[in-house]
Amino acid sequence: MADETATTSEGFDTSKDEQTTQGITGTTPGASENAQNPAEEGQAAAAAPAEGESDQARSQEEPQTDDQVSPTPAQAEEGVQAPAESGQDAQEGRTGQAAQAGPSARTQPAAPEARPRSAAPKPAPTPAAFARKAPHVTPAPATPTYSKEDLAKAESFGRVDDQGNVFVKDQGSERQVGQFPDAKPGEALDLYARRYLDLNEKLTLFATRLKSANIKAREIDDSLKSLTKEVASPDVVGDIDSLRTRLEALKTEGAAKKEELTKERREAMAKAVKERTAIVEKAEDLVASLDETTNWRNTGDKFRSLFDQWQHHQRTTIRIDKADADALWKRFSTARSEFNQARRKWAQERDEEQGAAKRIKEEIISRANEIKDSTDWGATSHEFNELMDRWKLAGRAGRNEDDALWARFRAAADVFFNARQADRDQMSSDEKENLVKKEALLTKAEALVPVKDAKAAKQARQALAAIQEEWDQIGYVPRNDVRRIEGRLDAVDRQIKAVEDAAWTQSDPEADARKSSFEDQLKAQLADLDRQIASEQDPDKRSALQAEKATKEQWLNAVK
Q1: What positions belong to coiled-coil segments (predicted)?
Q2: How far is the CA of 118 from the CAs of 33, 206, 411, 523, in angstroms?
């Protein structure tokens, strides 16, 4: 390939140089025109492959593409890839790459011993060759993008002598930038003018990149360093002083941008520290809230959630200073350690408590098995109730242990209480038989009343005493019938007793005296009521007096 490319007076491969520039800057205007010697453009066009040429032959002649250029340190740090770009983002991406191009990518002067190529010129790539490239690469334009006015303005700063030496006006003097023998002066100036415009475009792209929000301080430094080397003494034809003036202005803008980035980074780091501190404080609050009522499972889940938040924050936010990060992690790790220690202590105490509860419940079960066959229903029922109270106070022995222990205790209790219930069922049958017997006695007792006089009352009392003695020997009756049958027997007893009391009252002298005095009082009151009734005009009051008179007449008849 060495004999297929135009060389400068200094022996550098201009085609490779321009391809490198294109790979760094993306689609730098005018870069495609430097792929071959201007004097041989016609030969290159004539040597284009035929339409039926095989894909293999065309692929062997494909030019170097952007994806063959190694990424810059700034791109490697940011993980920048090379997807297809459009609009301002594409412009910014190409600018950052152009600004960071090393001195090797800078165009070099032509070699003085350049000779015309003897071999066939390199054919231009076909559309099929471009189609086989990676889809994210934007090919350089096939036609110049610089205007004739821009080229003419740049060429006005240079000249070409008869030997093909190219000179440029720089800082008030003239210096040689290269040699292009066997070429027309216009062609030589055009080549070096385009190199000037390429360099000027790098400055423009870097200026645009400075306005990007995702540019890094390191990228600014690397780009300015690279551009400073390129602009120091470039082998181009154009207004080099204006390039240096633009570069100085860009340095000032770059310094301002770095200050802005530093401020933004400082603010972002302060925000990140604040957010991570909030996570730490939540963890510390959880530790401070630990007590006997703590739900350790839920609290453990909260700590795991906080740890996940910590990791997510660490991955998705700006990296904070190591000192701050270490201090916050120490606090968070301390909180987690304190929680884990407290949970282990609680688990140990819980195991001890459950072990003690298990021993107590084993003792309760042992005692229940000892008394489960007792027929002392009252005392044993009371003791089982006490065992149940002890069981409740013993606490839990663990879910699985508690279920098994309770089943054993319940089995012993069921033996006793089932036996007591069977006994009660038997007693219920006997009580029903006793009820039938006592109802038969009630029939005999109720046949003793009414009694007419004291003698009959005495005989009825003797018969009732015999019935009551037999009543007591029969035994218990169903609880629901006790009040009913006892009430009927008491009613017979009260009737007999009433006759006995009346007979005793009539034979008592003191009672007779009291009776005579009461009778006289009633008669006097009745006489007074008769007078009041006769003189009373109000119908309501007269009715009340008459009712009172009727009552007292009944009392008088009873006394008599």
Answers
A1: 210-278
A2: 21, 40, 112, 174
Distance, in Å, from the CA atom of 235 to the CA atom of 107, rounded to the nearest integer, reads 7
Task: Say which DSSP state 179 is in.
Answer: E
pLDDT tens column, 51-91: 333 343 333 333 333 333 333 333 333 333 333 333 334 33
Tell me how far apart the alpha carbons of residues 304 and 312 are, in angstroms, rounded to a whole number: 12
Report in angstroms the alpha-carbon separations of 276 from 282, 306, 323, 326, 427. 10, 10, 13, 12, 78
Measured on CA atoms in the order 550, 551, 554, 560, is the torsion positive or negative? negative
Q: Is 108 exposed, middle or buried (0-12, 13-18, 19+ CB in 10 A)?
A: buried
pLDDT tens column, 162-197? 888 999 998 888 999 998 888 787 888 899 999 999
Residues with Cβ < 8 Å from 476, sequence gap 6 or more?
Answer: 427, 430, 431, 434
Q: 222 to each of 193, 231, 485, how far by Cα in Å?
A: 26, 14, 117
**Other Cβ atoms within 10 Å of 160 Cβ, number:** 22
Separation CA 231–CA 203 (nearest Å): 10
Q: Contact 192/178 with Cβ under 8 angstroms?
A: yes
Start-to-end Cα distance in the chain: 164
Backbone angles phi, psi at 179, to 5 degrees: -145, 135
The rounded distance, in Å, linking the Cα atoms of 347 and 375 is 44
How far, in whole angstroms, is CA 393 from its chain's centroid?
Answer: 39
- Residue-wise burial string across 9-27, b where 16 or more C-beta atoms lie within 10 A, e elsewhere: bbebbbbebbbbbbbbbbb
Joined tokens for residue 35: 């792929």
Contact predicate 36/15, CB 8 Å: yes
Span 351-385, pLDDT tens digits: 888 889 999 999 999 999 998 898 888 899 999 99
Q: Which helix (H) or strand (E) segment is 176 a member of?
A: strand 173-179
Q: Which DSSP string corresponds to 192-225?
A: HHHHHHHHHHHHHHHHHHHT-TT--HHHHHHHHH
518: left (phi > 0), else alpha (psi -120 to 50), else beta? alpha
- The overall average pLDDT reported for the chain is 74
> Which residues fall within 8 angstroms of residue 182, CB to CB, at 6 or more apart?
39, 114, 115, 116, 164
pLDDT at position 76 is 36
pTM above 0.85?
A: no
Calpha distance 8→108 (Å, rounded): 8
- Backbone phi, psi, residue 165, to 5°: -75, 135
- For the chain, how many residues are written? 560
